[in-house]
Write a structure and sequence with these properties.
This protein is an alpha/beta fold. It has 15 helices and 16 strands. Strand 8 and strand 9 form a beta hairpin. It is globular, with a radius of gyration of 22 Å. It binds pyridoxal-5'-phosphate.
């Protein structure tokens, strides 16, 4: 049997069984539902998109997968090249993996090892110059490792469910298992407030290897939105204290905040993309490093290499889907579609209020109604189902992250259903 996600199996209500899906619609035996969460925010082009389907079929006919260990293939090369031109600045070096969590692990590992490699070279500049050998003595290694082993992250962060991702995350509702071994003293969490950020850098700046954030929009931690000025200050502080800035754009990438990627506004050293990367067709993710990070590993010495390699990294079907997904995003001018979604949402939510509602937040293709008491949302999923909308509120958050191909009418229906719940 299936063990379902984030669920107490004993009390889990039966999940809706989907027998077909097309456009923004999911079909059960007896219902046609607008998917207001885009299958965990990934299905941006809708289901059964003919061009996406075709991209996969064409690749299947060549081959579905070859490993990247000792082999390569044109579809992965094309995607890496596409990302290089599509992403801002010198975010040019793509490390593929099979899920967002793993891609976050890769980013954190890169940041840690970047400083290990560098301090080896700094301790022995002649060696670095000659590019012969970058491994220092064990003693030097342990000292350098102590220096920058800390990671700064945000309060309410969510970066995935693998262990290091859980640690940089900050949500007891997801990761209460971590209590078993206590808080990691190498991870510091700060709120999205500039003065708190400055304080954290003043205290820990010299020992941090990275600052990891979900930029502008914290998804699973409660659809929390914050201002770009925080990220601008973060960039300055990272430069000042020589700390790598990591944007986890697994959720925010591909337009969700109204920007292609938030990295268009503030340039990180490493960006992580996932979820919508393949238009929700196949699990895949990528950690893209800038030149500085890449060159921290580039050496004659094998001990400076990044020792990582997910079995399905660069999967051909996933790469083919991702290439088509980016092509559609550009060609069909998705940024204006998302702007339209934001405008319609603003218009529909204007004047909406209820004593049970704490706040309504809107950014790009995301709207969230935060309530005071999670009980307020109990029964909403069924309520929405009966009105032809699939929704999955969590904790105090009733939200929508619709596929970008949604029509105004369909979007209004999603929003009306949300508002109606409070009018009963
Ligand atoms: C979903 C998510 C992840 C994890 O991605 P998976 O593919 O589920 O492993 C990481 N970071 C953020 C911001 C996410 O929203």
């Amino acid at each position: 049997m299936i063990w379902y996600p984030y669920a107490q199996m004993k009390t889990l209500p039966a999940p809706y069984k989907i027998i077909n899906a097309e456009g923004v619609y999911l079909y059960t035996e007896d219902r046609k539902l607008i998917d207001s969460v885009s299958s965990w925010w990934s299905v941006i082009h809708g289901y059964k998109n003919p061009e996406m389907d075709q991209a996969i079929i064409a690749q299947v006919k060549k081959f579905s997968h070859v490993m990247l260990g000792g082999l390569t293939h044109q579809t992965a090369l094309d995607l890496a090249e596409k990302l290089q031109t599509w992403l801002p600045g010198d975010l040019n070096y793509s490390f593929f993996s099979d899920s967002g969590s793993v891609a976050v692990e890769v980013a954190l590992k890169m940041a840690l090892q970047y400083y290990m490699n560098r301090s080896k070279k700094e301790r022995n500049p002649a060696v670095a110059l000659n590019n012969v050998h970058c491994a220092g003595s064990l003693d030097e290694m342990s000292r350098s490792q102590q220096e920058r082993t800390m990671v700064l992250a945000l309060e309410h962060a969510y970066h995935g469910d693998t262990f290091k991702a859980m640690e940089v995350g900050d949500d007891e509702d997801y990761h209460f298992v971590l209590e078993a071994y206590g808080k990691n003293r190498n991870i510091i969490h700060v709120p999205t407030e500039i003065d708190e950020l400055e304080k954290a850098f003043a205290v820990y700046g010299e020992r941090l290897n990275s600052f990891i954030v979900e930029p502008l929009l914290q998804g699973a931690g409660g659809m929390r939105m914050y201002d770009v000025s925080f990220l601008q200050r973060a960039r300055e502080l990272c430069d000042q204290y020589d700390v790598l800035l990591i944007f986890d754009e697994v959720a925010t990438g591909f337009g969700r905040t109204g920007n292609r990627v938030v990295a268009d506004l503030v340039l990180p050293d490493i960006i992580v993309l996932g979820k919508a990367l393949t238009g929700g067709y196949i699990g895949h993710a990528v950690t893209v490093a800038n030149r500085k990070v890449y060159h921290g590993f580039y050496d004659d010495d094998p001990s400076c290499a990044l020792m990582h390699g997910p079995t399905f990294m660069g999967n051909a079907l996933a790469c083919s889907a991702a290439l088509k997904s980016i092509e559609l995003f550009e060609r069909e001018d998705y940024l204006s579609k998302i702007k339209r979604i934001e405008e319609v949402t603003q218009r529909e939510m204007e004047g909406f209020s209820d004593p049970r509602v704490k706040e309504v937040r809107i950014m790009g293709g995301c709207v969230c109604i935060e309530v005071h008491d999670p009980e307020t949302l109990r029964g909403y999923q069924r309520f929405a189902y009966e009105r032809g909308v699939f929704s999955r509120p969590f904790l105090k958050y009733l939200y929508a992250m619709v596929p970008y191909i949604i029509t105004d009418e369909e979007l209004v229906k999603v929003l009306m259903t949300m508002k109606e719940w409070f009018r009963r």
